[in-house]
Specification:
With 139 residues, the chain is mostly beta strands. 11% of the residues lie in helices and 53% in strands. The chain contains one helix and eight strands. An eight-stranded antiparallel β-barrel has the order 1-2-3-4-5-6-7-8. The protein is globular and about 50 Å long.
Length: 139
């Protein structure tokens, strides 16, 4: 009898657990998204169509001429392949890598979902470099 009560207690505990992340992130697989401006970067606009992600952003570049240093915004457009493993994990890979680091895949784990955004942790290849951020759905 004690064994039956123990098993029932475990079953009730497992079925009554409410996960913080709900499986409603499918809506983030297609559309137009934004990442707010960060250090050295302007706002990033992301367009997802099928297996492609197109990112448009301004990068702030410092230009030095003798004693004068100025900052200039340079527009960048990157095209990446996006492959979803599930609604909470996807991989990005540059379509036309320009640098050695661009050849490594970017592994993205969605950590929190709201009505119009999700928070994520991204890791480049098998390096120790990780970054966190939030992506907002615009359309």
């Amino acid at each position: 009898m004690k064994k039956l009560i123990g098993i029932l207690t475990i079953i009730i505990a497992l079925t009554s657990c409410n996960t913080e992340i709900k499986d409603n992130s499918n809506r983030f697989k297609k559309g137009i998204f934004e990442i707010p401006a960060g250090e050295g970067y302007g706002k990033t606009t992301i367009t997802r169509i099928d297996s492609l992600q197109i990112e448009e952003y301004d990068k702030v570049v410092s230009i030095s001429n003798d004693s004068v240093t100025t900052e200039k915004k340079v527009k960048h457009i990157d095209t990446l392949y996006i492959k979803w493993k599930n609604n909470f994990f996807y991989t990005l890979k540059m379509k036309s890598p320009k640098k050695k680091l661009d050849k490594d895949p970017i592994y993205v784990q969605i950590t929190k979902v709201t009505d119009n955004s999700y928070s994520f942790t991204a890791k480049i290849g098998f390096s120790k470099f990780t970054t966190d951020g939030t992506i907002y759905k615009v359309k």
